[in-house]
Amino acid sequence: MMIKYIDWKVTIPRIVAAVPIAILVFIPVFSTSRDTLSIIILSGVWVIAAMGFAMILRTGQFSMGQAAFMAIGGYASAILTVKMGWSFWPSFFMAGVISGIIALIIGSVVLRVGNIYFSIITLSFGEIVRILAQNLEGITHGARGLIPPSPEPIVLGSFEINFDASVVPYYYFMILLVAITSLVFWQINRSRLGGTFFSLAANQILAEHQGIYLMKYRVIAFTVAGIFTGFAGAFYAHFLEIITPYMLGLWESIQIMIMSIVGGVSSLVAGPLVGAVLLKVLSVYLSRLPVYGIHALLFGGAVVLVLVFLPKGTGLIDLWKKFWRKVFNEPEWYEIPSIDE
Amino acid sequence: MPPAAIWMDGLIQSCIYMTMAFGMVLVFSILGILNWAHGQFYMFGGIVVYYAVAAAGIPFPISLLISAVAVGVLGMLVEKLIIERVNVPIYGPLYVGVATISLIFFFEGAASMLFGMQDKGLSMVYPGVLDLGVFSVSYQKIGVVIFTVIVMVAMYIVLNLTKIGLAIRAVSQEPVAANLYGISVKRISVIVMGIGCAMAAMAGSIMAPIYPVNPFMGRIPMIMSLLAIVIGGIGSLTGAIVGGLILGFLNSVIAYKISYFSEVVLFILVILILLVRPQGLFGASLK
Amino acid sequence: MKKWNTMITVLASLVVISGMFCMAHAQGTAAPDTPVIVKVGFPGPLSGPASPWGQIGIDAYNSWVELFNKQGGFKVNGKTHHFEIILVDDKNTPEGGAEAAKKLIYEDKVKFIAGHWSWNFPSISKVANRAKVIFLTRTGNEAVPGGIYDPKTMPYTVFACPSHEQYINDVFALVEAFPKYKKIGIYDSTQGKGIGWDYVHQELDKAGIRWHHEWYPVGTVAFAPYITRFAEEGCDILYGGGDITAAMLMTRQRWEMGYKNWKVGTAGGILDPNIIIEVAGNQAAQGFIGQYYTIWNFKKNKVNPKYVKMCQDVMQIVSKKQGEPFTYTGWIGWGPNHLLILAQAMEKAGTIDDPDKIMEAIRGGTFDTTIGKFTMSGEKTYGSPVVFGSPGALSRIQGKKEVLFTEHPMKPLP
Fold it and tell me: B53 has which bridge partners?
């Protein structure tokens, strides 16, 4: 097979983008520092959650209870391993399934109302999950939480992958999880389904008149997001080896929302990825500053500044596209209409 | 039938939620956005009044006005510098939502750096308890009720009997037409944001003698007033008042009846109301 | 080209000079008379709503450690060792606790962690045990039967001053002080629900004490419904699980609701009487009860006079430093206490590096600490290898001051 034509305008940005990804994959070769790797692993968790949020946003709805699905996933996996004695891999898989089923049930009831009502319903749902997790001590151990074990070692011939000894296995597990999620979301975005999602957000009435059944597509987006957010939550619980009601509440949902918006929702995969990684790393380093309270101050300030100074309606990822358009001297092909007449 | 003390407690809760929710709805009806940092303006109100009374020795009623003006100006700045720039057509509410949520972190961080994280209180303002035999109530609580009534009456007068009120109502009904008639929507937005934040600040400052003042005091009243405007109907001023009243009393009565599970009941109630009647009790359906 | 040459020369000379400094420094530490520094990590809530607890003790710990080092530190194999404490913010969340522990262990290379905050116990314990770092914690809520604590997977966790035992002792002290009480009302936020309280309830039932427990959601400020429920149950003493904000509001609101003769207190201790008076009102705050560690006033519990003197000195140093009288004494109960256990265990084990030997010395050893002399038991109840009790000492607010109110002597271990 011969490559007839290479579009350098597409290929060069891709190659440049591939460099940091390749570096990320090979980081454990250079440094196995638990601290550095932990930061990247934890940001991976938020990347998946933020992608889920972006997926729901594609259909024009903003969910303010995404952390609740992380909590459901985390608790599902923790209860299965701790209380029922399952091993890690099946319970990790079940965490996604259970979270997806709950998302399906909740979504098909709640998604009938849209807009801000949906946000407030999901917010309330998240709070209900937190309160239940706190008060059903028999199942969840209340505020003290459950301690799920780390995954069993995988034996490949004479080679053993031991999750207890170092964080490197977790690191590759996380990269795999993010890669699978990105792939699925990217494919959905490219497919007819992604186009339908976008049409719902762009013009709901027109989409309905084209014969698109709103509820069906909203529920699909919500469920897919729920499944992957559940996986992220289960990973989070097993990595930290603890899950409590207060780890994944309203403020974490808000964090997910901030991450994907700052990253940019014009792209389903890259935007949340950039936003979550940057903000998580920023937040970790800010929280090491010795002055108490300055962490929240600078974090909030940084997000506000990004929102105010970026072109309206875009996130950090759009800067990337803009940069390459500048490089290749392409005309601006899309302008978001301004608020002033 | 719960005892009188429960109803009194509910009334006080209602007063905070009403004042907070009213400001939020006012902002929503003009700017079309929810100000998530409303609770932090409430917190700033409490802090300003604490310093005015405890450090500067200014009499409490005057401190109330000072905090309302100071926080109102802060609100106007936020509108002018942030919300106006972020509010774009398609995802506008979302972007403003994220910006104001980030402001929560910013304001709480600033307050904990400047103010410290310890509880502070103003219990020395109008101390004393009025004993009515069946139940007793402190003078501060009576003050809260009277003050809330005054604020509500003042808002009624401003909105219905003044020129600026007419302009606000016009903009909330038909922004484009109001603009054509020579009302500057931008200026009205700034003014309304100022009034809304000033109301939050007044709620915070009238509460300072009753509840402790700290940088995190705004979180729960914010969520509660959000639920109140959802119950009453987003965008309806009457709804905000009725929603605040319902929520305040419900909160106390349910907590009295079933103790700590009251939180869940409130959230489930809100979900049910939204599913059955998304526009709330008084609201018109959202555009 | 020339520019590059100069730059390379400058860089090379910098490397050489810094290398020489390092060597000089290394030689300096190797000198026999300089003490060896033993680093101990202190994760605590330094930011967020719980930060008052984390921050109030900082100055006291630092001054105490300074004083301890100045008085000669401790000797292992005839060599002087000094403590250095490293404070890290754990944000009062399990996630923050795990991060703080990882930072302490892998970046600061500490071999010991001392911490008190319940919410973080499981995550810190897990990280510390995996790295074979000895973790001394004050909480014991999880250590009771069916709790999270597992002696097999957490061999390096030491419980000292468990909070639920302390609570039980406090209630005993209250009952001794008010023998005509009707019922004790226990209040705590739903965050505190769990096995620890079940244990408290059991112990109180065993002792024949009448009690009623009310939970409230986290962040509640209007307590009228709960106070009414207490009144209907016939309670006349309210003693809380440690939430100081809730305790202040309880004090104030029961006063306003007319239950003026109720006694109100909290196991968290009185951080600062002025705050309580400011929030609750002067009249309502009178008689407010809290945990108290003024070991110099203790009558029923015996404390080594050397430590009493040290703690009193620290109180004065901190008062001078902060420019106002420092009255909080809760810090005596755990920070210095944990450090003394560690120091004495290391002296006995003759090593500062081998955690197994040090744990051996801790198990079954006798330790002289700031809150009394303890013999650690290997077989005490609830499967925990190392647990010891604490004195139930209470103070109350009189005027604008906090004064010792009553004591319940520490129970000797079985």
Answer: none
What distances in angstroms separate CA A58 from CA B33, B95, B97, one per listed residue? 20, 15, 17
In a domain, A70, yes or no: yes
Task: Specify the residue for token string 């010795």.
Answer: A290
Q: For residue C266, which of C398, C173, C394 has the smallest C-alpha distance?
A: C394
Q: H-type helices in B53-184, by residue range? A: 60-78, 84-86, 92-115, 139-161, 163-173, 175-180
- Percent with pLDDT over 90 in chain B: 30
Q: Which residues pair with C41 in a beta bridge?
A: C86, C113
Instruction: Reply yes or no on whether the pLDDT at C319 is more than 70.
Output: yes
How far does CA C269 lie from the centroid of its chain?
11
Q: How confident is the model at residue A2 (pLDDT cuts 50, 70, 90)?
A: low
User: A-chain residues within 8 Å CB-CB of B286?
Assistant: 115-117
Report how far residue B108's alpha carbon sits from residue B213's, in angstroms, rounded to the nearest whole number. Answer: 12
- pTM over 0.90, yes/no: no
Condensed to tens digits (0 to 9), the pLDDT of residues B195-236 reads 999 999 999 999 888 888 988 888 889 988 888 888 888 878
Position A215 in a domain: yes
pLDDT at A231 over 90: yes
Please state the rounded mean pLDDT for residues A63-69: 91
Domain contains A3:
no
- Burial of C98 by CB count in 10 Å (0-12 exposed, 13-18 middle, 19+ buried)? buried
* Domains of chain C: residue spans and CATH: 36-162+301-391 (3.40.50.2300), 165-297+396-408 (3.40.50.2300)
Q: Check the CA dihedral B203-B206-B212-B213 and report its sign.
A: positive
Q: Judge whether C219 is closer than 8 Å to chain B, CB to CB.
A: yes
**Contact: C126, A144; criterion CB under 8 Å:** no
Return d(Cα C259, Cα B109) in angstroms, integer: 38
SS3 C134: strand
Query: In chain A, how many domains are there?
Result: 1
Are residues B13 and B151 in contact, defined by beta-carbon separation less than 8 angstroms? no
Q: Where are the domains of chain B?
A: 22-217
For residues C147 and C168, give the distance between their C-alpha atoms in angstroms, rounded to a whole number.
18
Interface predicted TM-score of the whole assembly (ipTM), two decimals: 0.88
CB contact under 8 A, B2 and C228: yes
The yes-or-no verdict on residue B49 having pLDDT over 80 is yes
CATH no. for residue A242?
1.10.3470
* Chain A stretch 119-148, residues whose beta carbon is closer than 8 A to a beta carbon of chain C: 131, 134-135, 137, 141-145, 147
Q: Report pLDDT digits (tens) over C327-377.
A: 787 778 778 888 888 888 888 888 888 888 888 788 777 788 887 777 666
Residue in C215, C255, C284 nearest the CB of B260: C215
CA of C123 to nearest chain A CA: how many angstroms apart? 6
Cα B235 from Cα B286, distance rounded (Å): 8
Q: How confident is the model at residue C127 (pLDDT cuts 50, 70, 90)?
A: confident
CA distance linking residue B113 with residue B215, whole number of Å: 9
Q: Determine the structural domain holding residue A60 and report its residue range.
A: 8-327
Q: Which of C46, C89, C199, C201 to probe by mutation at the A interface, max A CB count within 10 Å?
A: C89
Contact predicate C395/C292, CB 8 Å: yes
Residue of chain C whose Cα is closest to the Cα of A138? C194
Does residue A338 lie within any of the structural domains?
no
Measured CA to CA, the distance from residue B162 to residue A30 in angstroms comes to: 70
Checking if the pLDDT of C117 tops 80, the result is no
Under DSSP, the state recorded for A148 is P
